Amino acid sequence: MTPLLSVRGLRSGYGAVEVLRGVDIEVGPGEIVALLGSNGAGKSTFNHTVSGLVRARGGRILFDGQDITGRSCRAIVEAGLIQVPEGRRIFPNLSVLENLELGSFARARARRADNLERVFGIFPRLQERTRQLAGTMSGGEQQMLAIGRGLMGEPRLLILDEPSLGLSPLLVEELFGLIGRLHAQGLAILLVEQNVGQSLEIAQRAYVLENGAVDFSGSSAQLLASDRLRQAYLGV
């Protein structure tokens, strides 16, 4: 099966600091793949480089067989690779509806009404609050809004960057249930998380970044069976 996303030898960083040092990662059509690692491992730099927000210093990024290395972030979104960023990055002074509509600015604008209906079907709470300013919502509601905004662009691959960050345990359970439902609809997801245990329960495969390089990779079952990974990341 041809990968939907294929990253080979990716190097990236900021100024004189090289953060990613030859990272290889693949995501197949319809897969959930987890990218795991502690703070400072390079996860967000990977997301930003793949999404065109940070320029790659080496390696190649292929999306659906097309080389997108060095393309603008808008061109990458137009191709269907959409990121839900860490910290949600909603527009606090805009309404819920306005935030959602911005998700279709670069892609799927002609199907905005249909996609709004789909998002409201997934998140009925957002439909109840279309006129509410996004900045007045709870953290869990803002995460719903951020994911809904990403879905408005009809992603072929959705990157979720630390989606459980700052959420209560109950909301984390709801979030992972939602990710499972999106996957069941055929959406490919790259789940970038510090929550190793729950990520491995839902993902088919996983990569673990450490100091800007892939330290572990394999099926979720293989990683859960690794004594070294369990000791380092699960504390068992």
UniProtKB/TrEMBL annotation:
ABC transporter domain boundaries: 5-236
Annotated GO biological process: L-amino acid transport
Swiss-Prot/TrEMBL keywords: Amino-acid transport, ATP-binding, Cell membrane, Membrane, Nucleotide-binding, Transport
InterPro entries: AAA+_ATPase, ABC_transporter-like_ATP-bd, ABC_transporter-like_CS, BCAA_Transport_ATP-bd_LivF, P-loop_NTPase
Statement: the UniProt record of this protein carries the keyword ATP-binding: yes
Gene Ontology MF, one: ATP binding
Family annotation (Pfam families): ABC_tran (PF00005)
PANTHER family recorded: HIGH-AFFINITY BRANCHED-CHAIN AMINO ACID TRANSPORT ATP-BINDING PROTEIN LIVF
Family label: Belongs to the ABC transporter superfamily.
Name of this protein: Candidate ABC type branched chain amino acid transport systems, ATP-binding component
UniProt gene name: livF
